[in-house]
Design brief:
single chain; about 800 residues; alpha/beta; TIM Barrel; 8-stranded parallel sheet; 4-stranded antiparallel sheet; globular; disordered C terminus; glucan 1,3-beta-glucosidase; Glyco_hydro_5
Length: about 800
């Protein structure tokens, strides 16, 4: 969401209502980033208790599309099929190997080499024939030849009989067993056995289908089956005898999970699973509509959980986890030509403290299911820590609407220490060797609001989180995940040169065009002007050189703020003049953009071209989001431009994202590969000591606190918590065994957790930045600076700490 300035609404339920009088309302500020030019700002005052817009900011203030330094590069749209090399082409030059030669996968032969279709017949020289005649041996008796010929004829007859039996009897049986997939001895994928053999002898042999392609039958983990459809040469893979083996491939052109994904060359084409494990009102409206007509509607997961608990209906949340995203979604995502999923999880997937009402730990159970599903269908995961204790941005998707309490205010350091512990716990789990193929990316914090928190505090926090992850994983390619930093709304240019020689980090920026001053321009007009190409293309390329691996963690097809609760519960929309916080003249009717049943073929074609331009410009991306749930009022998704799945079903999303290659002319290409240290090669992890010292943790001050020694802080004496590992059952040759899975990668990482000092009083972690500081302040930053985490050189399996 580069350049999108939006500040949380101050919730009437908090005890800090005067906080908004002290701090500048960031909704009314402008981000001076590479993606934005200063413009006149609207003054939006959100009412207490109203849900803030998820994606607002500078972009919501400009006319139509946001200007950017990319626009000055003159990127212009072209039509698919032009001779221009697209922005993704520069990142992924077409191979002349098997995959590159078979770009057309209509025959599913991408794994086979392409050959010239012209046939040639061998010819011989007449002079060679004459030579053979001249030097031929004298004729011999034919008796021996006749005997040999008879024996050969007999052998041919015997072979014909054997082959006839094989193809008439044996081969059909094998085909029935294999179902066109790979097989292995053992139980079936759902734990059952397929037996065959001589019933008289009483012996049995068991075979299981462990892999298959388009048209094969898949047995899901719940025992049900479906027909796998993947027109791109993708193959699923699950071996019940070795359930952590990775062999699936989502498409013919994407490396299988047991092959190297070359970031910067292999494009990320992903989708978010938003609203699943961290609920949002506009994504799952049915959960929130139950309370919308009350005097105190649920506006975030905090208030939703409170109301569900009061009604004895907390099981509604787990029902949502069970049904909103399932195994079949992962198969569909691979079939859509996508290769990554970004999965937001909340901190309460690990634990809750004090009076936090969230349903704890259940989300982790479903994340582990997602890992199994991703492994089975060849998808890679970007695990994103979406919500921190106290809130890193004050928006509803951080868990609680209201104030920022991470790195800001009297509980800013305490909440940050607690958050870093959760980053450590997750890093220890996913750095274990069995997860390196399927979870290559770890977003340590989603959208910390840097303009309010401050750049110094954000950078120190990022370095400390990086060191924590590398202490858990070790350093170098193959050792744990890449560490993903959100741009914190400072823009891409601001991060150039951050942490030189850091081992495998990526910069994440979120790009939207829908929250600016509203425009009547429809998709066709925007496509004609090439809005996505001119807004984003050059900026992404430049960051790939100036910073390193850069991706777009969120974007959508929305071109205005229409959609139920896109801006927040009961907040209305600027486009139709119903926005409740400040006056906007009506630009148009939102039903034009929300009732997709009325969209004609041209409208959908324009939307698809807008999507292709966006994909081309953004290059490495995750669409927000895979699906929007149905409204209980209309029975349809009320924000259709945000749903990739619906777009595929209704015809406005590209069925093959490769069609975006070359759509935007690339006037400022990035030339791969990335430097060796950026990808875990030579020099990786060798951050200069001066850079480390300049960003030592913790900070000595915050933007609103001159000396953190005056703040209440935690002590590092708490019992270590770890995430529960999955229970994996391996079945083979008629036997079943339970595999021992771990939760902790580095046995040397034994430091305790940060917890309150028993004799001190503490503020509510969610109180807000203006609450009075309690008694019992902490030591000075220098006195309490902990021993720095140091990246490790390798990985050693470790015992599991007690949960």
């Amino acid at each position: 969401m580069s350049g999108t300035s939006y500040q949380p609404v101050f919730n009437a339920s908090t005890n800090n209502l005067h906080a908004q009088d002290r701090y500048e309302d960031v909704r009314d500020t402008q981000f001076y980033t590479p993606e934005t030019e200063p413009l006149e700002l609207h003054q939006d005052e959100l009412p207490a208790g109203a849900a803030p817009p998820r994606f607002m900011g500078a972009a919501r203030h400009d006319a139509g599309n946001r200007a950017s330094f990319a626009s000055s590069q003159g990127s212009v749209p072209t039509v698919v099929g032009d001779d221009y090399e697209g922005s993704t082409d520069a990142l992924n030059q077409k191979s002349r190997g098997f995959y590159g030669l078979n770009y057309d996968d209509s025959e599913y032969n991408a794994s086979q080499p392409a050959f010239d279709g012209r046939k040639t017949s061998p010819t011989t020289s007449p002079y060679l024939n004459e030579k053979r005649s001249s030097f031929a041996p004298r004729p011999r008796s034919r008796r021996k030849a006749i005997i040999i010929g008879s024996l050969v004829a007999l052998a041919v007859i015997i072979a014909a009989v054997v082959l006839g039996v094989y193809f008439a009897v044996i081969k059909p049986k094998q085909n029935d067993d294999s179902t066109s997939g790979k097989t292995a001895s053992g139980a079936s994928a759902d734990g059952s056995s397929d037996t065959s053999g001589n019933s008289n002898s009483g012996s049995t042999s068991s075979r299981v289908v462990i892999s298959g392609g388009d048209g094969s039958t898949v047995t899901m983990f719940d025992g049900s089956t479906f027909t796998y459809t993947n027109k791109f040469g993708g193959t699923w893979y699950y071996d019940p005898a070795n359930p952590t083996t990775s062999g699936a491939r989502p498409q013919s052109w994407t490396p299988a999970l047991n092959e190297t994904f070359n970031f910067g060359q292999d494009p990320i084409r992903g989708v978010n699973l938003g609203g699943w494990l961290v609920t949002e009102p506009f994504i799952v409206p049915a959960l929130y509509e139950k309370y919308v007509n009350t005097s105190d509607p649920a506006v975030d997961e905090w208030t939703l959980t409170q109301k569900l608990q009061a009604d004895g209906a907390l099981s509604d949340l787990e029902d949502h986890y069970k049904t909103f995203v399932t195994e079949q979604d992962f198969a569909e995502i691979a079939a859509a030509g996508l290769n990554f999923v970004r999965i937001p999880i909340p901190y309460w997937a690990i634990e809750v403290r004090e009076n936090e009402p969230f349903l704890p730990k259940t989300q982790w159970t479903y994340f582990l299911k997602a890992v199994q599903w991703a492994r089975k269908y060849g998808l890679r995961i970007n695990l994103d820590l979406h919500s921190l204790p106290g809130s890193q941005n004050g928006w509803n998707h951080s868990g609680r609407l209201g104030d920022i309490n991470v790195l800001l205010g009297p509980m800013g350091i305490a909440n940050a220490e607690r958050s870093l512990d959760y980053i450590r716990i997750i890093a220890e789990f996913i750095s274990q060797p069995e997860y390196k193929d399927v979870i290559p990316l770890f977003g340590i914090t989603n959208e910390p609001f840097g303009p309010t928190i401050g750049e110094d505090a954000i950078q120190r926090y990022y370095l400390q989180a990086y060191n924590i992850v590398r202490n858990a994983s070790g350093t170098g390619e193959g050792h744990g995940p890449w560490v993903v930093f959100h741009d914190a709304f400072f823009g891409l240019k601001q991060w150039a040169g951050f942490l030189p020689n850091a081992d495998r980090t990526q910069l994440d920026i979120h790009q939207y065009v829908c929250f600016g001053a509203q425009s009547a321009d429809d998709y066709g007009t925007r496509v004609q002007s090439g809005q996505p190409c001119s807004t984003w293309g050059a900026g992404q390329n430049d960051s790939m050189t100036a910073y390193g691996m850069t991706h777009v963690g969120e974007w959508s097809l929305a071109i205005n703020d229409c959609g139920q609760w896109v801006n927040g519960v009961n907040l209305g929309a600027r486009f139709d003049g119903t926005f409740t916080t400040s006056h906007f003249d009506k630009t148009g009717d939102c039903s034009t953009y929300t009732d997709y049943t009325q969209w004609d073929a041209q409208w959908k074609a324009d939307m698809k071209q807008f999507a292709l331009q966006s994909m081309s410009a953004l290059q490495n991306w995750f669409f927000w989001t895979w699906k929007i749930g149905n409204s209980t009022v209309t029975g349809r998704p009320p924000s259709p431009a945000w749903s990739y799945q619906l777009g595929l079903q209704e015809g406005w999303m590209p069925t093959d994202p490769r069609d975006s290659e070359g759509v935007c002319e690339n006037t400022d290409p990035f030339n791969p590969p990335l430097q060796a240290w950026m990808t875990g090669g030579t020099g990786a992890g060798q951050i200069p000591a001066t850079a480390q010292a300049a960003l030592a943790w913790p900070p000595s001050s915050l933007t609103d606190v001159a000396d953190i020694a005056t703040l209440p802080q935690y002590t590092q004496t708490g019992a270590l918590v770890s995430l529960p590992a999955p229970t994996l059952t391996a079945s083979a040759a008629g036997t079943t065994s339970v595999l021992s899975a771990g939760s902790w990668n580095n046995p040397s990482d034994t430091a305790s957790m940060w917890v309150p000092v028993a004799t001190c009083g503490y503020l509510d972690p969610w109180m807000g930045p203006d609450a009075s500081t309690p008694a019992c302040p902490s030591q000075s930053a220098t006195a309490r600076r902990r021993e720095a985490y140091a990246p490790r050189a390798g990985i050693t399996p470790a015992p599991v700490p007690s949960s």
